[in-house]
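pipeline stage [seq->struct] | target=Vanillate O-demethylase ferredoxin subunit | organism=Rhodoferax saidenbachensis | residues=321
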Amino acid sequence: MSTATLQVRVAHKRAEAQDICSLELVAANGGALPAFTAGAHIDVHLPNGLQRQYSLCNAPGETQRYVIGVLRDAASRGGSANVHDALAEGSVLTISTPRNLFPLAEQAPHHLLLAGGIGITPMLAMAEHLANTGQSFALHHCNRSRARTAFVERLATSPYSDKVQHHFDDGDTAQKLDIAGTLQHAPPGTHLYVCGPQGFMDAVLNAGRTAGWPEERLHREYFGAAPVDHTNDGSFELEIASTGKVIKVLPDQTALEALHAAGVDIPMSCEQGVCGTCLTRVKAGTPDHRDQYLMPEEQAANDQFLPCCSRASSTRLVLDL
């Protein structure tokens, strides 16, 4: 988790599409902001007390500002609504320094960027970097309709506009994204990057795996957790390896909540199993993985888990703490 924080001011707030706004953030003291790399995000401390992660979508070389894009999500727990309703130009916010869990593979001969909806935000910074460094790439942006497509003008007027294609659910069949075909025609060694709604990401990643793409060339970033059925959740125990202390996790309690209640300090951020901040090593026992951060082979190893969302299949997990 990024421990350093910054004070920023909302310099500009702009409607980018239906239910999507962008915020341009500048240092409250007027100075430069820390540099960031393409794919990075910041933790934003909102006025209602919530903390949310948003990808930086401006060019990585810029240190005078950060730009984020936020969708007003009908299923939101209050974060996106607070951005849309409570923040205005001049608002001062606390944010983390940037961190990157979705970096570009700089050695790749070609980069295929597939974005669904608001998942375009990290791809914008990637496209800016790839274009500025002369690397080979293509960007596809899928949306329900043109009215819901953010940053259309920016992409249309960019120096890399010829590498961008838009696809609309309400458009004719010919312009819709053929995921399998797009992957099939990608140059050898291409790295794929995907961000967007769960169903879109699953379709893209499954197509890649079906086509035989190795996991190291499939990169993804989730911006929300998939629904989880808690009906059959039971209790289990956590043992702290260094002290032998045993902590019980109740059926209606997360492992992270139990650890914090017992005075064990685990860093946290998204609390949805998306960001990886609370990743904890497991020395014994079998986790019930419910995150969207670890890759399938990492989950299968059962030597780490995310206590904010994952539980235990065994009666006890021994944590390397």
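stage status: PASS
auto-comment: The longest helix spans residues 120-132. The radius of gyration is 20 Å.
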